[in-house]
Structures are given as C-alpha cells and as structure tokens.
Amino acid sequence: MNRQTQTFNEIDRVIHEPGRLMIVSLLFAVDRADFLYLQHETEMNKGTLSSHLSRLEEAGYVDVLKTYRGKVPQTLLHLTGAGRKAFEHYRRKLKEAL
Amino acid sequence: MDQVESLLKRPKAYNNIDGTGELGMAFMCLCFALLLWLQLNTPKDSIWNQMYVLFIWVGLMVAMIYFGIMAIKNHITYPRTGFVAYRTQNRIWTTIVALVIGALASVGLVLAVHSHRHIVMPVFFLGLFFAAGYAFGIARSGGVNALFRWKWAVVLAQVLGSLTIAVLPGELTAALANGSSVPAGFSASSAGAFLLWLLMYGTLLLISGAISFWLYLRHTQAPAKEAHEPANADVQ
Predict the structure, then answer these.
(1) What local confidence, expressed as pLDDT, does residue A54 receive?
(2) How large is the average pLDDT for residues A44-70?
(3) pLDDT tens profile B12-53
(4) At A11, which CATH number?
(5) Distance from CA of B8 to the nearest CA of A (A)
(6) Average pLDDT for B208-220
(7) Cα A83 to Cα A94: distance, rounded to the nearest angstrom
C-alpha cells in the first residue's frame, strides 16, 4: 500500500461525509450553536440535519443539549474535545493527501 | 479544502449579519460627537466639561449599545437564523487586541495634535486607520459574498470623507467648535475637524448598518407562529 492510499484510509469517514463535514466545520469555529443556525447555514432540511447530528453524537463528536430560550424550545450543539481533535486530524490528513 | 476553510469563517461573518456591529459603532461615534459638541459649545465650568460626566456618558453609552444589540439579537436574529455562542478564548484576545490598538491610536492622535502640526494629518490618518479596520472586518467576514460586497463602497466613502474633512478650510471647521471651550493643546479648527469626522464616520456606519439590517430582514423569514397558538388569535 503506498503512502497516499494509506493517508486516504486514515481519513475519518464520519467527518468526511459532506453534510457532516459542513456541520463539524461550522461547530469548530464556535463554542455552541443551535439547530436553527446549522439549518440556516447548511440549507439542509430538519430530517437530514437530525440524522447527521445523531451520527455525530453516536461517534462522540457532538453534544446535544435540549433547552428553552424563553418559552421556545432550543437544541444547542457543541463540538466535544474528541470532535475537535478528530476534525483537526481530518484537516491534517486531507492536506497531506492533497 | 477551500470550502472547509470558507465554512470555518462563516460563524465570524454571522456576528454582523444583521448589521448590529455597525449600528453599535455608529451609535458610539454619534454619542461621542454629541458630547464633544456639548463640551465645545458650553462654558468650561459647565457640567459637560466635567470628567465624571465623561465616565457616566461612556457607561450609559456602552450599556445602551450592549442591551440594544442583545435585544435585536434575541428578538429578531436568533429566532430567524439561529443562535451562536462564540469561543471565549478568541473573544478575550480579540477584545485585548482591539483595546490595545484603540489606545495606541488615541495616544497617537493626542500626540499628533499636541505637536502643533496641522490637523490635516491626524484626522486623515485616523480616517485611514478606521477605514482599514472596517475593510479588515469585511474581508474577514465574507467580502466575497455578494451580500457584503457593496460594503467596499463604504470603505471608499470613509477614506474620501476623511480626506475631504482634512482639506477643509480651518475657518470652516473652527466655526463648528465655536472657539468657546476648546481644550488646551487643541485649536478650534482641529476640534471642529475631529467633531466633523465623528459625525461623518458615525453617519456612514449608521447608513451601512441600516442597509445591512434591511437586507437581513429581506433575505430571512420571520419564525412561524407556535403550533398551539390559534390561527385567529389576533382576531377579537
């Protein structure tokens, strides 16, 4: 196996999916954001966004906190330490591969 | 990879997506212009020329800007396009850098005025400095985005405005200060030019902020009413 193939194999598949990559990139730059913000920025529908967030939560990359802003329900998303490390590793590997 | 880097910049641009940053800055410039005008056009022993009034004025101004921006964010921006909390570490460093640059610029301006040079230089360089800061803000937060591209015209207006004020005849700017309570070390023309610059910069930011806010409202949708609210709730 050559080095480039090895680098491609080391790329995190959870993050590499385009929808999830958008979510993780946006969350990486902030402390936390709500579901509406991610929906607005990614232009995904609620179902698709929810499914990607569930996958990221399963992987331990995103924390989901259900709360209220006044009387309105709010879902806050936060990239965990593991999520930050995974994204930094992903960027590094992708740069190497390219 | 470029798309990932672009996505990483988007939350920064989101902070001023509604123009509140510019509106806050405009409010600050216009408040300082009003205070300076009151100081220049009232006797030296009047309340407006007391140091404690400056602190009260600044305190009230900062509180109004903070709570005003929070009110717009909480009632308009967050319900329309979502809530974002920025990383504290980044904000502390940004605040420290902004404070240091602001302090250096203020000291530079005061030294320039006290060195008895003509006011052309301090006002013009102050104008360039703030225009550069504004241009940096646009570039950092999506200058390539069509929604923000028109703001480069504001940068040009800021530079041209500063240049125009710097070359105005001294008698004209001195007339604004009225020559009554000009602080020691300042000439009436320099104080008048500074007042005019604050008015110009504040007005440009007010216009720019208002356009940003209008564009934001135009391109986003108001949140739908809650499901449990009857459809004819406002019909009595």
Answers:
(1) 95
(2) 93
(3) 888 888 999 999 999 999 999 999 888 888 888 888 888 899
(4) 1.10.10.10
(5) 6
(6) 93
(7) 16
User: Which residue of B7, B145, B225 to mutate against A (max A Cβ within 10 Å)?
Assistant: B7
3-state secondary structure string, A25-64? Answer: HHHHCCCEEEHHHHHHHHCCCHHHHHHHHHHHHHCCCEEE
Q: Identify from B2, B3, B4 which residue to disrupt to test chain A contact, counting A C-beta atoms within 10 A and taking the largest count.
A: B4
More confident residue, B130 or B98: B130
- Least confident piece of the model among B61-70, B128-137, B201-210: B128-137
A-chain CB neighbours of B147 within 8 Å are none
Domain count, chain A: 1
Average pLDDT (B1-21) is 84
Residue type, A87: F
Q: A35 — contact with chain B (CB < 8 Å)?
A: yes
Q: Give alpha helix (H) positions in B168-236.
A: 170-177, 188-219
Contact A25 B78 (CB under 8 A): no
The helix (H) or strand (E) run that includes residue A76 is strand A72-79
Shortest CB distance from B86 goes to which of A31, A39, A72? Answer: A31
Q: Which residues of B touch A31 (CB under 8 A)?
A: 85-88
Q: Which two tokens stand for residue B122?
A: 């301090």
Query: By residue range, what is the domain housing residue A89?
Result: 3-97
- Measured between CA atoms, how close is B84 to chain A, in angstroms? 4
**Tokens, residue B32:** 């300082």
Lowest mean pLDDT among B123-132, B145-154, B208-217, B223-232: B223-232
- Answer yes or no: do A37 and B88 touch at CB < 8 A: no
